[in-house]
Fold these 4 entries.
Entry 1:
Amino acid sequence: MSILLENHIVELLLERNDKAMSLLYEHYGDTLLGVAFKVVRNEELAQDVLQESFMKIWKNSDRYDPNKAKLFTWLFRIVRNTSIDKLRSVNTKSDKEIQIDVSDVYKLGTEGVNPELMDVQDNLDKLDDKYQIVLDALFFQGMTQQEASDELNIPLGTIKSRLKIGLRELRKIYGSVLLLTSMLYIF
């Protein structure tokens, strides 16, 4: 795809012009459907994911920043994350159907847990920027460590170190049990 066409699509998205969606579908639809299918391994689910993804793209078009990522990278992440969410949703639904009689599996002891303290993302601002960036990429943008390394242009070893130190710093804020519980809510 030419840079001119990509820039035109971005402009249309930012203007909330319907033409942007038809251009996106025309130029990226097949590839993004392939991304969804690779994750969910089901044609019908992949089509649902693509439709949901395009709705998210439209709703969040003002969040796209060409200085942070190419348009395809941004689209790819939305489709990939939506695919993962869909797969988890389907798996959770089937798990619940299987475990109808089991109500106490995986009960977490939450006595004394203050719900206001459970939002890890709100407490990231208490960490140094270098740790915030890595934790945000890994936990809230759904990147793997290698993807974060590539996207942030930071060596993989540094990503791993910053993850470890960032989690240690959050543990100081929450305490080890609270951090584990908080991280479970993320996934």
Entry 2:
Amino acid sequence: MKYYYVYILKCIDNSYYTGVTNNIERRMYEHLTGENTTCYTYKRRPITLVFCEEFNDINQVIAFEKQVKGWSRKKKEAIILGNWDKLKYLATCRNSSHYSNK
């Protein structure tokens, strides 16, 4: 069975990079050594792997990566800390003009 991974790296500038791979060890090596000079992480090394989730369906991994890339920093930090329950709270609109807050 083939496995795929969505991962989040924390860069030296405290930004996050989200990626997908079918070989996490190889991909980490590429990030750490700066093999691709045009990669987001190249000028933001050293990097640290802070999240990695395994999938066995390519469609699921692509969808999850796309979803995570669109998330706020707080949502990414919630899953990094393993606090999946906090995602629902962070997704709820708390703006005073929202219908549920009237």
Entry 3:
Amino acid sequence: MKLVSRDIDKNDSGSVSLVPEEAEDMWHAYNLITIGDTLRSTTIRKVQNESATGSVSVNKVRTTLTIQVEAIDFDTQGCVLRVKGRNIEENQYVKMGAYHTLDLELNRKFTLGKHEWDSIALDRIEMCCDPTQHADLAAVVMQEGLAHVCLITPNMTLVRAKIETNIPRKRKGMCQQHDKGLEKFYDMIIQAILRHVKFDVVKCVLVASPGFVKDQFYEYMFAQAVKLDYKVLLENKSKFVLVHSSSGFKHSLKGKCKQD
């Protein structure tokens, strides 16, 4: 579901404009709309015209109506939501108070108004409009000192965290600072994964890098998971897949990413 606009005041009264983009969104719309709400959308209306000679013609016109909802019917096979109610706004084709049925379909915007949005309806809006709910693939694209934690949906790649830090160079006989910097960098990536990857949704986590950075990080992450009892990582260890990437691959992914 695409959220076009949201205008809800501090008293939880107002409206939201939404565009259903897939079949499941129509089910969410069915659960959001209740009797007594106002609904605004485009529709087709038959209009009779009488000429000077007395002949009558019927034409179909597209117009925008706002109705007060009285009945709701969900056609699951046709993926159409039919909402019946009385027209409550001036319209050149439909009289005030006249009945009309609005057909809500995929990719057709509608505006839903409520006197009071309860927490259940607001939570449903948040859930169905959150693209990460449809991101069943995650990726950690990294090199030493730089990493992107991404969630990948069917339509876009979302960068949820960018971790960038200076790691001291390795010097002969003085590797301690380098190792400490690397561990701090790895710890930041682990925290980003724990914060942003929803393992109840995500089916696979790609860990990609040129060279052996990915392998070193993977070993460190699960050693820390055992040490600090990160159960969510240990329970989902099988979902992590190591991938060798070139710089070209990283640039390609970065070009497709949308920063939130």
Entry 4:
Amino acid sequence: MNDDRWTFGLYVPEGDKLVMRVTRRWSRESEEASHREWKPGEGHVGQAFKTKRELVCRDSTDPNVRGFLIATGQNERSYDSELYMSFASVPIMIGTRPKPLGVLVATSDRRGRFAPSNNDDENGVLPDTVEPLRVAANVIATILCLTEAA
């Protein structure tokens, strides 16, 4: 992802919103900028949290998904359609808890950067680029569980 404008972030619930607690972006200047907060059900971060299911989008400009995941109101930015072309939002779950502990998010300005396994394109089957995020979400869940137990 060296040439992408990318983001990796960890959103956690705080009150009635999801706030970014940890982030890494393609540039230090971008990392230090302010971050949006999402309500459960709002945008792909809030949808993943509310539904307790990962959301993976190869092409956010696809009209079938764009309206469902678009930011509105104070979270809408003019650059969203250029900067967030592909994303994966993975809820951080522990056992049978009723709500996720947070959402791990990865975004890219490249179409097709994130795709679950068994997706194909003109050249055949694409690799599952979301699996490393699932593993990271499980590790984060384990760490949070151990922290609570201490």
